[in-house]
From TrEMBL:
Residues 22-194 form the EngB-type G domain. Belongs to the TRAFAC class TrmE-Era-EngA-EngB-Septin-like GTPase superfamily. EngB GTPase family. The gene is engB. Necessary for normal cell division and for the maintenance of normal septation. Its cofactor is Mg(2+). This is Probable GTP-binding protein EngB. It comes from Lactobacillus colini.
């Protein structure tokens, strides 16, 4: 898919604020600093549609981005951020949970994991939760440009040790915002699940 139009629509804190034009939605989740804002900017070919920062955990709302007037990318708050209070974290959790469990427009979850590290406990929980809810999952390994060739060639096996990539409705994609690696393949997966 060629992106010709992308816009930020809303930072929603409650269901009332979610868009109601019934377009397919794809949630993007991952721990803070995994490269989610960078991925969003890269796939829509904009420098600053989603904010990127060195300071993790800033996004505390569900951010809806409309692409080509055809679908929404939904930036889900990064998990595993130490500086928000436990109460706040529980609140985000509830909002994400409600969204993932009840949103009819939700067609898939993109789970971002850092290619350099083993998936965290939070990554595994999110993966298993989405599996349980029967949501199609695309596991994206970010920052592939940081890996050596040998490591890069083994990334699927490495991530597959923690996340069962062989399960039904699970796909895997190595990605890099810096190298713009696999942008087309990202959209291929989205289009196949719209
Ligand atoms: P977010 O918190 O998940 O939205 O993460 P960001 O997109 O803000 O990225 C966190 C940090 O990782 C920033 O310093 C980015 O420049 C860096 N980063 C993101 N994507 C890549 C990538 O593909 N390659 C490299 N080398 N760095 C990246």
């Amino acid at each position: 898919m060629k992106v010709t139009d992308s816009e930020f629509v809303i930072s929603a804190v409650s269901e009332k604020q979610y868009p109601n034009d019934d377009l397919p939605e794809f949630a993007l989740a991952g721990r803070s600093n995994v490269g989610k804002s960078s991925l969003i900017n890269t796939i829509v070919n904009r420098r600053k549609l989603a904010r990127t920062s060195q300071q993790p955990g800033k996004t505390q709302t569900l951010n809806f981005y409309k692409v080509n007037n055809l679908l929404y990318l939904v930036d889900v708050p990064g998990y595993g951020y130490a500086k928000v209070s436990k109460k706040q974290r529980e609140k985000f959790g509830e909002m994400i949970q409600d969204y993932l469990e009840t949103r009819a427009d939700l067609k898939g979850l993109v789970l971002l994991v850092d290619a350099r590290h083993d998936p965290t406990k939070d990554d595994i929980s999110m993966f298993e939760y989405a599996q349980y809810l029967d949501i199609p999952i695309l596991v994206v390994a970010t920052k592939m440009d940081k890996l050596k060739k040998m490591e890069a060639s083994q990334i699927k096996q490495k991530i597959g040790k923690s996340l069962n990539l062989k399960r039904k409705n699970v796909s895997f994609l190595p990605f890099s915002s810096v190298a713009k690696l696999n942008v087309d393949k990202f959209w291929d997966w989205i289009e196949a699940h719209e």
